Amino acid sequence: MKILRILVPLALVVAGGVLGVTWWLGGDDAPNEAPPAAAAPSGDVAPRAAVAPPTTAEAEVAPRRTADVAFGVAGTVAARAVEVGDPVEAGDVLARLDDATQRARLAEAEAAVSAADAAVAAAREGVRAAETQRAVQTAAIRVAEAAREAADAGARLAAEQAPAQVARAEADARRAAAAVTQAEAGAAAAEVAVAQAEASLAVAEAQRRQARAALASAEVALAQRTVRAPFAGRVLTAPPEVGESVGPSAPTIRIGDVGGWRVVTTNLTERQVTGLTSGATVRVAIDAIPGRTFDGTVERVAYAPRLVRGDVTYEATIRVDGAASDADVAARLRPGMTAVVRDLPLATGVPTGR
Fold first, then answer.
1. Residue 82 contacts residue 227 (beta carbons within 8 Å)
2. I want to staple 351 with a disulfide (CB 3.0 to 4.6 A). Which of 9, 52, 201, 333 is the partner?
């Protein structure tokens, strides 16, 4: 009995556990069907409409061309001749480095050239004198030879007609022959003198070439210490201050040619650039000249991109037609002014949008 009292409750517990597991695994009371699947929509799904790229782009006003000029050497600024906004002509001095040493060397080189010129002139005079002496000696030879021939003839005649005069005639012939020899020696010496004079002239001319080369080098060294305007325009950046040290070839002053105006896009996107080519026409509005728009012609489109705040953009340079010929407009324009390029042509197949 004691065993039965233990086994009966244990059997009831086991039976209850079996029934619970059966229900959990999907017994009679568990749902036996999966929920019905959602019905698929009938027909094709319409594609999302493409968003058209805008036909406008922001831009900045820029001169027709710009140039950054720099000193050719390092040095200390001694003078500045212009300020920002000043008009300049081609060749105008913009700034100058201290050039006292270079000017002294230039003066030395000029003096050396003057001395070399004088030496060449003297050497040429020496050549002319030697050539004159050679001509004199050549003539003396001809005279001496003629005298010798005459003396020889006299000696022969004396031997035939006046034997008593033979000794005298032969002496005259010997003297004439000696004169010929002397004249020939003088001519040889004259030839040597001409050769020496010509050699001296060659040396003098070589030294003058060296002096002239040194002068040209001194002129270049002096010129490198001055920067000049490469073309007519306006000064866009200020020269360094007097007393400031500058390095060689570092951009010092920027000059802009304001004889014509351009705008350069600043946010032209990769979707917009595909339809833009050189020669395309657009419209340009400049914020500083409200109420007016100008015809624009695309001059070039950059091939390489430029990242602007993480966005891929391309620079397009657009000529603003009529801006330079209108005196009022030209007087109001400044580099860096904001503008808007309108009516950008888009690539074929791209919907237009604003």
1. no
2. 52
Residue of 259, 235, 270, 266 whose CA lies nearest to 338: 266
| Average pLDDT for 149-159 | 67
3-state secondary structure (DSSP) of residue 146: helix
The CA distance from 76 to 99, in Å, is 9
* 3-class SS of residue 350: coil
Q: % helix / strand / coil in the chain, to the nearest 5?
A: 45, 25, 30
Q: Residue 285: in which H helix or E strand, if any?
A: strand 281-286
In one-letter notation, the amino acid at residue 246 is V
Q: 261, 270, 347: which is closest to 297 by C-alpha?
A: 261
Give the global pTM.
Answer: 0.62
Residue 295 is encoded by which pair of tokens? 């015809």
Instruction: Residue 113: name the closest of 185, 207, 48 by CA.
Output: 207
Q: Nearest-CA neighbor of 302 among 264, 336, 335?
A: 264
- Tell how far CA 353 is from the center of its chain: 43
Evaluate the CA torsion angle 191, 196, 198, 199 in order and state its sign. positive
Question: What is residue 260's three-state secondary structure?
Answer: strand
pLDDT tens per residue, range 273-315: 988 999 999 999 999 999 899 999 999 999 999 998 888 999 9
For the chain, which domains are there?
100-223 (1.10.287), 249-342 (2.40.30.170)
DSSP 165: G
* Between 193 and 314, the higher pLDDT residue: 314
Tell me the angle at which helices 100-161 and 166-223 cross, rounded to the nearest 10 degrees.
170
The CA distance from 201 to 206, in Å, is 9
User: Measured between alpha carbons, how far is 189 from 38 in angstroms, rounded to an integer?
Assistant: 128
Greatest CA span in the chain, whole angstroms?
A: 205
**Tokens linked to 329:** 């407009």
Distance CA 148, CA 298 (A): 97
